[in-house]
Design goal:
- It is a single chain.
- The chain is mostly helical and about 190 residues long.
- It has helices at about 15-25, 60-70, 95-110, 130-145, 165-185, and strands spanning about 80, 120, 145-150.
- The longest helix is centred in the C-terminal third of the chain and has 21 residues, at about 165-185.
């Protein structure tokens, strides 16, 4: 795994497959990834100066610090986002899209590009409650310019009904890349 959070629990994620596919599509370009995942966080924890009560981390602030460090040596060309399990409840899901729109705007401002491609990944379709967030994600491209959604259709969990198995995480990474490449070509 590329990410750093919860080192004793991490498994395969979509990041490596995403990076490999992006490198294949851009063989003359050096591509770096900025892992910023904080597993188990709700979107409400991805606001400035907000500490996530479970992880005791500051997900947004930490991600911005990593973005700023990366921008000293390169350009941010896109953002991928895979989060929402914690928001998959009837109480939290209704305003998910509004909060995601605000987050996208904040991240684009930090990156210095109000049109930076942003791809959100669907949650697994194997848990009924995840449809609450996936239904909101489906609306994203119609609400926020230069955004797309990577489908989770046909992907499976690793036996916990929550996390993708390795093959599905790899496939999701490829789907993230396909959407990112499409958005970058139209930018």
């Amino acid at each position: 795994p590329l990410h750093f959070d919860k080192p004793k629990m991490v498994a395969v994620g979509p990041g490596l497959a995403f990076g490999i596919e992006m490198a294949k599509a851009n063989p003359l370009v050096k591509i770096g990834l900025i892992p910023s995942a904080v597993g188990g966080t709700a979107i409400e924890s991805w606001e400035p100066s907000v500490m996530d009560p479970v992880t005791k981390a500051y997900p947004y602030d930490d991600a911005v610090a990593r973005l700023n460090t990366a921008m000293k040596n390169g350009l941010i060309k896109g953002i991928i986002w895979h989060q929402g399990e914690a928001n998959s409840t009837p109480e939290r899901a209704p305003d998910y899209l509004v909060k995601l729109e605000l987050l996208i705007g904040r991240l684009r401002k930090v990156a210095g590009d109000n049109n930076i491609p942003f791809v959100a990944g669907e949650l697994g379709r194997y848990r009924d409650s995840y449809k609450l967030v996936n239904d909101k994600l489906e609306l994203l491209p119609g609400k926020v310019p230069n955004t797309a959604v990577a489908s989770s259709e046909g992907l499976t969990h690793k036996g916990d009904n929550t996390h993708f198995d390795a093959a599905s995480a790899t496939e999701l990474g490829k789907r993230f890349a396909a959407q990112m490449i499409r958005l970058q070509k139209t930018k």
